[in-house]
Amino acid sequence: MTRPDTPPHGQPVRSDDLIDEASTARATVDERGIVTQWNEGAEGLLGYRPEEIVGRSAAGLLADRTNPLSVAETLRALNPPDRFRGRVALLHRDGSRVTAGLLAHRVTASGDTTEWLVVSPLPRPERPLADEELLKRCFAQGPCTMAVYDTDLRLRWANQDMERVLGLTQEEIRGLRVPEISPGPEAEETEERMLRVLETGEEQHIELFLRMPGHDRPVAWSTSLAPLTDGDGRVAAVMLSAHDRTPQHTTRQRLLLLNEASVRIGSTLDLDRTAQE
């Protein structure tokens, strides 16, 4: 598959060509509350050039002026201690107030010292794909095996991996229940758990071992059944997400076999019996 941003003649794509640094206002603040780094996005947000702000107290950027130590003291008093989030009134270089959503992470800097990485997303131009379209593609093309069932437990949506596993397209199974799509005791158990999700609003987990048309061998499935709620908090659908855990299942079975063998083999001094075991 070729990425839409792949340049001609097979030239590699550089990160600088893809990542717009100016789309995030980013700065670092040391434990004393002093600004140590200031990027292009931060300049776009507050108007200060790096040479005007680096080395100054971050307190000077607050619209509600405080004493320079209060920023450091506030950061040290955070709970949890390694992150801050919230909307803060800041002071633009022209004197106007700018209210921005800030996210700050406490990180380890050089020399084992700590500092705060402070970021704020900036408005961006309209993207080629709207958010709703991206969400649809995320579901359809996601690496997990996923499907959505309505409150009658009939299939509404199946992603591409679910289609591959079942050997059926979404249109061929839309409106069918799980036992109608893949008959068997595992399907009956899955639907019982889905009904429990509808009744309780609580996520359910189920481990299954079965062979599906899209696989040439039995597969150990770890399946989660989660409620999808509407604006009033009522369960409006059930999301099924299944993950192939066959390697972990195989390893666990081998360990159990080895454990059983260690208990049973050589438990007596009878050489013939031990050889038979």
From TrEMBL:
Which Pfam families does the entry link to? PAS, PAS_4
Q: Where is the PAS domain?
A: 18-68, 131-201
> InterPro entries of this UniProt entry?
Biofilm_reg_signaling, PAS, PAS-like_dom_sf, PAS_4, PAS_fold
What CDD domains does the entry give?
PAS (cd00130)
Give me any GO biological process, just one: regulation of DNA-templated transcription
Question: What Gene3D superfamilies is this protein classified in?
Answer: PAS domain
SUPFAM superfamilies given in the database record: PYP-like sensor domain (PAS domain)
Taxonomic superkingdom: Bacteria
Protein name (record):
Putative PAS fold protein
- Organism, per UniProt? Streptomyces himastatinicus ATCC 53653
